[in-house]
């Protein structure tokens, strides 16, 4: 089944979602988007999922939309109704709003909607052999999975426009210089580095992380007074959490806190 092309690994609070369609460069058809959306809906409600990693199999992270499905929809006169964009939008909104840390492990070529999935995550760790390309304009389209929203927050306006308008393939190092990825790691150390980083996040205070993500999300549309009020409310919620109480005990006892993620 096509949904088996989305594989899950779970260990010690880190859930890795792997797009496993290497022959299709991990392109996403509608059924894959439905599966990803359902997974995120479930994981968002599960506090045992303390860090989410998304990656791909083979030489690509994700090539974006499944072009064969797209072409068939156009041939059938269904371009306006076949629903890929609506499904992609539902998924990427859940990813951007995920209440705990998210990591895009960019293992290879990242194009179109693949870049948008990366941009929606909190962190983008790229292998040295990875690359990023807008893809949309190369097909005569404008960005369509939140890219125009994410890019405006990640990069200078002229950098964002160049990435989209010229449809250049940027190496991992070029993407790092432009602010589109968080760090670049040698290929032979990539998987181990991602695993260590995700484990660090999963061992942290998940409740505080969730409130911090929400604060960041609202900050660009808030006045300072509104943001301070939101910080006050979030701080009180963190203080009443098990993690907050454990951190206070640990500080008094002069030891490292052991966070439970609650």
UniProtKB/TrEMBL annotation:
Signal peptide: none annotated. Keywords: Lyase. SUPFAM superfamilies: ClpP/crotonase. Residues 243-262 are annotated as: Disordered. One of its GO terms (molecular function) is 3-hydroxyacyl-CoA dehydratase activity. Its EC number is 4.2.1.150. Pfam families: ECH_1. Belongs to the enoyl-CoA hydratase/isomerase family. This is Crotonyl-CoA hydratase. It comes from Paraburkholderia hiiakae. The lineage of its organism: Bacteria, Pseudomonadati, Pseudomonadota, Betaproteobacteria, Burkholderiales.
């Amino acid at each position: 089944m096509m949904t088996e092309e989305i594989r899950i690994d779970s260990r010690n609070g880190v859930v890795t979602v792997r797009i496993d369609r290497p022959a299709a460069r991990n392109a996403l058809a509608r059924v894959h988007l439905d599966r990803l959306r359902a997974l995120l809906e479930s994981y968002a409600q599960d506090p045992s999922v303390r860090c989410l990693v998304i990656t791909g199999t083979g030489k690509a992270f994700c090539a974006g939309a499944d072009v064969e499905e797209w072409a068939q929809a156009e041939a059938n006169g269904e371009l306006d109704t076949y629903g890929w964009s609506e499904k992609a939008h539902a998924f990427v909104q859940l990813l951007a709003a995920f209440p705990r840390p998210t990591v895009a492990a960019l293992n290879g070529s990242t194009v179109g909607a693949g870049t948008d999935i990366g941009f929606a995550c909190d962190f983008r760790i790229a292998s040295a052999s990875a690359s990023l390309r807008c893809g949309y304009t190369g097909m005569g389209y404008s960005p369509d999975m939140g890219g125009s929203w994410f890019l405006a927050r990640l990069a200078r306006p002229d950098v964002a426009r160049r990435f989209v308008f010229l449809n250049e393939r940027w190496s991992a190092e070029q993407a790092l210089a432009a602010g589109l990825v968080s760090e670049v790691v040698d290929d032979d150390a990539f998987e181990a580095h991602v695993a260590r980083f995700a484990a660090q996040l999963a061992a942290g205070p998940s409740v505080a992380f969730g409130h911090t993500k929400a604060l960041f999300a609202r900050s660009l549309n808030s006045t300072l007074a509104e943001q301070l009020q939101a910080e006050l409310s979030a701080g009180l919620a963190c203080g009443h959490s098990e993690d907050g109480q454990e951190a206070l005990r640990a500080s008094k006892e002069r030891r490292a806190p052991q966070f439970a993620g609650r």
